[in-house]
Fold this protein.
Amino acid sequence: MLPGSCKGGPGGLVRRRLRRRITSGDVYSLPVNQTAPASPTDHRSTRLHYAWIVVAITFLILLVSAGVRAVPAVLMLPLEKEFGWLRTTTSAALSVNILLYGLTGPFAGSLMARIGVRRVVLSALVLLASGVAIAPLIRERWQLVALWGLGIGVGTGLVAVVLAATVVNRWFVARRGMVLGILTASASTGQLVFLPMLARVTDRYGWRVAVLIVAAIVAALIPLAAWLLRESPERMGLRAYGASDDQPTDATRVDAAEQGEPLGAVAVLRAAASTRNFWVLCVSFFVCGASTNGLIGAHLIPAAHDHGIPEVRAASLLALMGLCDLVGTTAAGWMSDRWDSRWLLAAYYGLRGLSLLFLPTALAGAEPSLVLFAVWYGLDWIATVPPTLRLANEAFGRTRAPIVFGWISGGHQLGAASIALVAGALRVSAGRYDWAFLGAGMLCIGAAALSLAFRRAPAGSTPHGLPLAAPLHPA
């Protein structure tokens, strides 16, 4: 008999520990070149850490949710043609959708902290699948506002960028910026990549068929999310990706409720709103939403149509923006891990402003000008998100940052909703979108200057070192 091979010997102990690790899911952290259980903190292992599985399913959830948000941009012209509605009617429904998408975010962050990420995500997917499935029954204006404005707005808000922030803060210590960039890119890229497919289906089979296809895709995602999505690494016996042995994790923290810290969305807002940094991030993100979802996402296809560009071709330009955004936002996340996020934000807003000032010329010119705009703008589409969340983490701490970021995202969507309505009204009154594009460009240049007003805390005094019950001190 070999030494240690008996049931009670060290070899048997090793095998029993390995079985427990495999059963608990900790095998994802186990280096293949070790026979004894290895520390789950070694993120350089050749085994796949489960954090990347969570990133993959979160990527799909955000991608599909973005596809749902892409539908109104394709429906705007067919609904106006079928029912004789004005642009202000469809823009109003879209504005309600965008506004609720943003305002739901902070409450979603609070719900995820209280009842769990998986429950919130599954509830959102069920709401979206059922809401989109009954959309073909719309006949009246109020039905469009109630269903697509209220129902779909809340559903998409529950699985917004706040979900990405929560996943990144729970599952990652290393590479947070890069991972957030990937997830953020999925949220924006999905919306843009879905558009050409939806435009082609709408053009060939009608808008109702396009809507039902989206509903089926959302429904197919529900069992996948239920199977793969997990709350936190600690519940699986793991450490966050990149965490060291002496680094505190969620499992070692005292529960916030036991320390008396109110993690409700309104309580966190009240504390954060007393700080200068909150308003710097919120106002600049208002401009971000105004210049992306509210203007380009909602009105580029109708604006291109005004210049004789077919809807499918205009949707293809948005798809090109989406592909460029995947590169640009991922790179923005990588850079936010390495450089001062204030200067990154200033650069992103400034470049976006210049691209919007160029857009009226591009629409009136030849096709290469539009392609240039699509690439230029696409690389910058939502590159602002990773540095904004990084600054929120720095100012408010990792525990509260997802909820604070939810409120900041509410400012983003308030800007989007406002300009979606204003741009539609300008189109009706002036007969073109030029003033909307030029105004948004100037707002972006102002946001670039505002980003530099963020005050960084001195080394060693950031909220990360404060007890959870400590108040948020003004910057």
Remarks:
- Confidence is low (pLDDT under 50) at residues 1-11, 13-44, 249-262, 464-475.
- Residues 168 and 176 are 6 Å apart (CA to CA).
